[in-house]
Write a structure and sequence with these properties.
Blueprint lengths: L9 E4 L3 H12 L4 E4 L3 H11 L6 E3 L3 H6 L6 E4 L5 H10 L8 E4 L5 H11 L5 E8 L1 H7 L2 E5 L2 H14 L2 E2 L2 E2 L1 E5 L3 H30 L4 H10 L8 H10 L23 H11 L5 H13 L2 H10 L12 H29 L6 H7 L9 H11 L11 H24 L4 H13 L6 H12 L3 E2 L6 E2 L6
Parallel strand pairs: 1-2, 1-4, 2-3, 4-5, 5-6, 7-10
Antiparallel strand pairs: 6-7, 8-9, 11-12
Helix pairs in contact: 1-6, 8-11, 8-12, 8-14, 9-10, 11-12, 12-18, 14-17, 14-18, 15-16
The protein binds NADPH dihydro-nicotinamide-adenine-dinucleotide phosphate and ribulose-5-phosphate.
Length: about 475
């Protein structure tokens, strides 16, 4: 067969961490892959890695050659920054494409951009897919979780390849077509928001052990190692245990002890919040996590403030590690419940008809937030959420009743001893807000009516009312 007759089933553009791993995963599963990259050197460096895999991998420095190497209708996956570079690449590649071809943005995109790009290509015959990919480099290489938004036509093209390379939970591929345009990227954004909250909660418990219980990294690592099999078992607990056991080659110290306490962020956590707030939702655990990353960047101020601020700490019994495990368990349920609530609101807002149970199912393996609890979440969502809330599902109520005492003791001890636990506190405060039939918003309404004549509803009469305020 002549060389030009061999056409790849998929093109992968962008051979960075994620693109190269996904291309290798595809080739490992027998798919023929055409690859390209802005800097051609990366293509030459990449191709030897793909040698010997079952699929044929060809490299193409020229964009037109890359497109020509892919069988029609084409499926082209971009793993590049989903910001300006994605717009530039859409502009560059679109004139080379034909009716029925699909461009996939597999990066972490703001779903508003995905909707804009989908709308711009509407009617051109070219389809646009926003696909969230989770699992980091290792997941991309060996089985990620993927959240797809786009047309049925594109999904039909992509499905066999996506299902083959996805992580499997008891044989079920962790990938699904979740809706049109921005649905996949929105779900990935909320996944990352939950990821932020979970990471922050773990960091807070680590802080209690380090700063209040006086444990060193090795000792804390052993506690997390012991949690790898229990109810809080998760990928993030796993890597926390491994990170705590890792040593810095240069100094011989635990590596966590030489890392500056300043967290980076690329936007997905913040986007979750922005979208939640726009829809009148509060994802307070995620907000606490995003805020904590923000405050962490003010290291110089915090070091100066430590000498100036008196925390007026009070004696506290530092809870044992069983309480801390329960605190993480309860807070993880509450954090996920907020995430699912945001998804549910977005589904209604954008008419996506998101299948929340399927979303929970495709998060059971491959993704960063995979955990022992996710199968329980999936079961609870599939059974139907009372009043639309995960925390009201019978299995979750049972779990919360057992774990909340630990969360309360941890938050109380942290407050007394001056240890910041913003995400754990936010989780508890949200639980208690939801558990209080008569809250305190009557006072907010009184104040609003007092200063602004905004009116209020009464419990005993219909209609809008004003108070006879003393002035
Ligand atoms: N790393 C992770 O854990 C995860 C990342 N993602 C997302 O995947 C995408 C890729 O991330 P990752 O692989 O980590 O990033 P890398 O930095 O490893 O690679 C970035 C890739 O984008 C290319 N690129 C950058 N700018 C441009 C441009 N202007 N035009 C064309 N190509 C460009 C780079 O090409 P060049 O070699 O020429 O610089 C390179 O191939 C991002 O959207 C990221 O958010 C999603 C899930 C997890
Ligand atoms: O999508 C991911 C994991 O799911 C990426 O690793 C992402 O970069 C994580 O977000 P941030 O860099 O803001 O911590």
């Amino acid at each position: 067969m002549a060389q030009q007759e061999i056409r790849a089933q998929i093109g992968v553009y962008g051979l960075g961490t994620m693109g190269s791993a996904l291309a290798l995963n595809l080739a490992d599963h027998g798919f023929d892959v055409a690859v390209s990259n802005r800097e051609a050197d990366w293509i030459d460096a990449f191709l030897p890695e793909a040698a010997g895999l079952s699929g044929n991998v060809t490299g193409h420095a020229d964009l037109a050659d890359f497109v020509a190497a892919i069988a029609s209708p084409r499926t082209i996956l971009f793993m590049i920054p989903s910001t300006k570079p994605m717009d530039m690449m859409i502009d560059a590649i679109t004139p080379l494409l034909s009716d029925g071809d699909t461009i996939i943005d597999g990066g972490n995109a703001d779903f508003n951009d995905t909707r804009r790009r989908s709308a711009a290509l509407e009617g051109t015959g070219i389809h646009f897919v926003g696909m969230g990919v989770s699992g980091g480099e290792e997941g991309a290489r060996n089985g990620p979780s993927m959240m797809v938004g786009g047309s049925d036509h594109s999904w039909a093209q992509l499905k066999p390849m996506a299902e083959a390379i996805a992580a499997k939970f008891h044989g079920d591929p962790c990938v699904a077509h979740l809706g049109p345009d921005g649905a996949g990227h929105f779900v990935k954004t909320v996944h990352n928001g939950i990821e932020y909250a979970d990471m922050q909660m773990i960091a807070e418990v680590y802080g209690l052990m380090r700063d209040q219980a006086g444990m060193d990294a090795g000792q804390i690592g052993q506690v997390f190692d012991g949690w790898r099999e229990g109810p809080v078992a998760s990928y993030l607990i796993d890597i926390t245990a491994k990170a705590l056991a890792s040593t810095d080659a240069g100094t011989g110290q635990p590596i966590v002890d030489v890392i500056r306490d300043q967290a980076g962020q690329k936007g997905t956590g913040r986007w979750t919040l922005i979208e939640a707030l726009k829809m009148g939702q509060s994802a307070s655990t995620i907000e606490a996590a995003v805020g904590a990353r923000g405050w962490s960047s003010e290291g110089d101020v915090r070091r100066a403030a430590q000498a100036l601020l008196d925390p007026a700490t009070q004696p506290a019994d530092i809870p044992g590690t069983d309480d801390m495990e329960n605190a993480l368990l309860a807070a993880r349920i509450l954090g996920h419940a907020q995430g699912f609530r945001v998804l549910s609101a977005a589904s209604a807002e954008f008419n996506w008809d998101l299948d929340l149970a399927r979303i929970a199912e495709i998060w059971r393996a491959g993704c960063i937030i995979r955990s022992a609890l996710l199968d329980e979440f999936a079961g609870a969502v599939r059974a139907g959420l009372p009043h639309g809330h995960l925390i009201l599902a019978p299995a979750m109520r049972t779990r919360l009743t057992a774990a909340l005492p630990g969360l309360r003791r941890v938050v109380a001890a942290a407050a007394l001893s001056g240890q910041p636990v913003p995400a754990l506190s936010a989780a508890l405060a949200w639980h208690d807000t939801m558990a209080l039939g008569r809250g305190t918003a009557n006072m907010i309404q009184a104040q609003r009516d007092y200063f602004g004549a905004h009116g209020f509803e009464r419990m005993d009469q219909d209609g809008a009312h004003h108070g006879d305020w003393l002035r």
